[in-house]
C-alpha cells in the first residue's frame, strides 16, 4: 500500500509540475497583453471547465500533462480572429516572446530550487565532501557496519532464508568498530581490509584486531563465501571470494544541514553540479539506447539508462515504501531540473525551438538592415513541419522505449 501511495504521490507531483509549467506560459503571456483562450490540466475529453474573462479553464479526462492556448503563436496560425491580430503572440517583441516561452522551464527550475532550499534547512543536502569514488572509499578508516547476512551471489538484495550469517556478527563485532588488523597484518583503511580478505580462502578462520570505544581487542571468525569481480576490474569475471559480512561507515556524514542563509549558497552549488550532470546525461542518451533495448529483451538493466515518468513514479513509490522521503524529493528535484533543461533545447516543437526561431528572425533582420536589404520577414513554420514531425517521431519512439523498459525491467533503488 505504501508503494502504491508513493507512485500516486509522485505521479501527482509530476502532473502539478507540468500544470505549473503551462501556468507560467499563461501568466507571462497575459502580463504582456497576449490573448490566452484556454488553460487545461490534462488532455482528451473535458470533465469540467469554467470561463473567466477571455480564458476558459478546466480539467480533461487524461491526466498526462496540460496545455494553454496563446493566440497567434506563429504567423501561420489560421485560427486568429481579425480583432485579435494586434494581440497575436508573434507580433510581440522577441524579448517578450522569449520570456513567455521560457517561463515553463523557469517554473521547473523554481520548483527545483525552492525544494532544494527547503531540504537544505530541514533534511540536509548530500555532503559534497562525502567519499564517492572507489579510491576515496578505500582510503576511509575501516569503521564497519555489520550486515545481517552474506549474500552468496553478486547481487544487491535483501537477506533470504538460507543465506549464511554475517561472520562479523558471529565474532561479536559491533557497528562502529574500527578494524586494525587481519591475521596479524595491519589494516590502515577500508581498501586494505578488502585487499586482505581477497588473499584469504572462503571458509578459512581469520583473526581480526579492532578498536571499540578506544580499547583494542581481538576476535576470530570463519569467513563466508560470496561472488565478486576483481577489485581492480569491477566489470571483470566474477569469482568466489571470502566475505566478512561488513560494510563501511564513512567518516563524514552523508548529508549536511544548513542555516536559512547558508542554504542559498549550498543550493546554488548543488544546482551547478546538477546542471553539469544533466548536460552529461543528455550527451549519453544516444549511447544508452542499445542498453534500453537490452533491458527490454531480457538483459540486465543499466542503472545509468534514462527513465520515463513511469520509472520515476515507480522509484518514488519505492522511496515512500522504504520511508526514504529525501530520495523522493531529490527525485522530484532532478526530474524538474531535467525537464526544464530539456524543454529549452533548440528543437521544435519544444519551447527552445520557438525561442531559437524568434532570435534567428531577429538576427536575420538585423543583418539584412545592415546590408540595406528588405527585411525577409518571419520564418515559415510550415516549411519546418517535416523536421518537427521527425523530432516528434523520434521523441515518441524514445518515450515508448523508456516506458517499456520501466514496465518490464525497471530500475530499483531498494531491495524489495
TrEMBL record:
Keywords attached to this entry: Hydrolase, Membrane, Metalloprotease, Protease, Transmembrane, Transmembrane helix, Zinc
Domain of life the protein comes from: Bacteria
Pfam family, one: Peptidase_M50
Entry's localization field: Membrane
Glycoprotein as UniProt keyword: no
GO CC annotation, single: membrane
Name of the protein in question: RIP metalloprotease
Species this protein is from: Micromonospora costi
Lineage: Bacteria, Bacillati, Actinomycetota, Actinomycetes, Micromonosporales
